[in-house]
Amino acid sequence: MSLSHLFKSLDSSAFSDRFSDADVCLSVIAEEKWRDGYVCRKCGNTNYCSGKTPHSRRCTRCKTDESATAHTIFHRCRIPITDAFEIAWMVCSSPGISSYELSRRLETRQMTCWKFKKRIMECLEEGTGLELYDFSMNKSNS
Fold first, then answer.
1. Is 142 within the bounds of a domain?
2. What share of the chain is helix, strand, coil (3-state, %, to 5)?
3. How far apart are CA 3 and CA 123, in angstroms?
4. DSSP-derived secondary structure for 41-94
5. Which end of the chain is more exposed for a tag (fewer CB within 10 A), N or C?
6. What is the pLDDT of residues 48-71, one digit of tens each?
7. Does the pTM of the predicted model rise above 0.90?
């Protein structure tokens, strides 16, 4: 599912109603991430149980935990997940929005908004949506 499809036709009040809770945001990420079924990245096993954190999954063979946000555009996101969803919604709604405007609306540092907007824009351009985000490609650029 693309990001623009996820936030398509949501106005401000509809967005606030739907994504006001971190648990809901994590649930949406987990559903999208594992829509084709869970496969452990370490050993390839497809059986899992609940992990230590909400909406995470633990491999029943090697006991590796994987959070819902791991290997998505929300991976290592240091702002609250609800704020990250709001930035994603604002960028999908109006791609030309500046990081200064995002910063002002969310009362978050401008550089934080700029970095996350950049990540979202890359995913929109590549059409990857919430799906796996290639951090190895961007480590050399940082």
1. no
2. 45, 5, 50
3. 8
4. TTT----EEE-SSTT-EEETTT--EE-SSTTSTTTT--S-HHHHHHHHHHHHH-
5. C
6. 999 999 999 999 999 999 999 998
7. no
